[in-house]
Specification:
The chain is an alpha/beta fold and 335 residues long. The chain folds into three domains: 13-112 and 162-193, Rossmann fold, CATH 3.40.50.700; 118-159, no CATH class; 210-326, no CATH class. Helices cover 28% and strands 14% of the residues. The chain has a five-stranded parallel β-sheet, with helices on both faces. It has a two-stranded antiparallel sheet with strand order 4-8. Strands 6-7 form a two-stranded antiparallel ribbon.
């Protein structure tokens, strides 16, 4: 008869209890967890996943039945767009010792946050009514409650305003990116496993900008016109801003290794604002103004100033692609 191996202290050590949740986002952050490849086996050695709707069969009622603070770390990705997402944010905050805003949408609102230039009625009009690809002769739009012969169907309320996670509940840490790179995910997980987390409220990332990680040569930035990437015949081995292409690198926190720039594509700002920056878009607009020489604006005619402004296609989508809900002015005022 084979004797059972005596358990060591290490064996008896309680595993970390983790949870993952996906709110208003594309789901890329869920895939980022898997992008750490075989390293996920190391996580399984030290942690159990209690709740991960996209990957395991767990229900809201399972979380509701948990004791408060029974989850050690919850990675919450996605912005808050609906009543359901707000409810689960509060529930997971209650059940978790540490809540991490995971990815650009949870941290700064992300691309879903661009809907803050409209309200619910306008969003529904574009999605369900005034759309050439939508066949909806009865003009039906989503409602929170509809009665049918079998009973009542319900949907969560769709809010006018997209919010960040920390505009809804208290957040302990932030891990930005769209999505966070595998290296960033591993850095966060290792900090948790080794109990080396930074002070509460910290962004788990370096104190530098994307420019500090960019391979392109940088000299004096002075340009006379703005170009979109497809308007440039050949990308030179120098700063994209110096080639007239808007790149959010100066206003964006690093940590991604400037991967987009390695592929000759400008930074679009998914890392969120640089440290000590109040408003990512405003910082970039200020940087762009100095590059264009707008400090001499008083010497320019109104037509010259307007010509430069008109070269920026979609200013909100350019300067606040991932961060409108967290900006100083975070939505369009609607009556």
């Amino acid at each position: 008869m084979v004797k059972e191996k005596k358990k060591t202290k290490e064996d008896k050590k309680k595993k970390l209890q983790l949870a993952f949740y996906w709110a208003a986002s594309c789901g890329g952050c869920e895939i980022a967890v898997l992008d750490i490849d075989e390293k996920i086996l190391d996580i399984i050695d030290v942690a159990d996943i209690l709740f991960w709707p996209v990957a395991i069969d767990t229900k809201y009622k399972d979380v509701e039945a948990m004791k408060d603070k029974s989850i050690d770390i919850c990675f919450f990705n996605g912005a808050i767009r609906t009543e359901e997402q707000e409810h689960i944010a509060h529930l997971l905050r209650k059940k978790s010792k540490v809540l991490v805003a995971f990815g650009a949408c949870a941290t700064n609102g992300g691309i879903p946050g661009l809907a803050n230039i409209a309200n619910r009625e306008e969003v529904f009009n574009v999605a369900y009514l005034n759309n050439p690809s939508t066949d909806n002769p009865k003009k039906v739009v989503p409602k929170t409650s509809v009665k049918i012969k079998e009973g009542t169907l319900t949907l969560p309320e769709f809010y006018d305003t997209v919010k960040t996670l920390d505009q809804t509940v208290d957040v302990d840490y932030y891990l930005p990116g769209c999505p966070p790179t595998p290296e960033q995910v591993l850095t966060a997980v290792n900090a948790i496993v080794e109990n080396k987390l930074p002070p509460k409220g910290s962004v788990i990332g370096p104190l530098k900008s994307v420019c500090d990680e960019c391979r392109f040569e940088k000299t004096e930035k002075k340009i006379k016109e703005i170009k979109r990437i497809w308007e440039v015949d050949k990308i030179e081995d120098k700063c994209l801003l110096e080639q007239g292409i808007i790149c959010m690198g100066p206003a964006t926190r690093g940590g991604c290794g400037a991967r987009c720039l390695d592929a000759n594509m400008p930074c679009t700002g998914c890392g969120g604002p640089t440290p000590n920056s109040l408003d990512q878009g405003a910082k970039m607009i200020s940087a762009l103004a100095s590059i264009l020489g707008l400090e001499d604006e008083e010497k320019m005619s109104d037509e010259e100033v307007q010509r430069l402004i008109d070269q920026v296609v979609d200013p909100v989508g350019t300067f606040y692609k991932y961060g409108l809900p967290s900006a100083l002015i975070n939505r369009r005022v609607t009556k």
